[in-house]
Amino acid sequence: MFNIDTIRKDFPILGEKIYNKPLVYFDNGATTQKPRCVVEKIEQGYYTLNANIHRGVHYLSQKATEAHEEARKTVQTFINARSAREIVFTRGTTEAINLIASSFSDECMEEGDEVIISAMEHHSNIVPWQIQAARKNITFKVIPITEKGELCLDSYQKLFSDKTKLVSITHVSNVLGTVNPVKVLIEEAHKRGVPVLLDGAQAVPHIQVDVQALDVDFYVFSGHKIYGPTGIGVLYGKEEWLEKLPPYQGGGEMIASVSFEKTVFNELPFKFEAGTPDYIGSTALAEALNYISRIGINQIAVHENELLSYATARLKEIEGMRIFGEAKEKSCVISFLVGHIHHYDMGMLLDRLGIAVRTGHHCAEPLMHELGIEGTIRASFALYNTKEEIDTLIESIERVRKMF
Ligand code: PLP
Question: Cys-Cys crosslink for 121: which of 99, 125, 127, 182, Cβ 3.0 to 4.6 Å?
Answer without folding.
Answer: 125
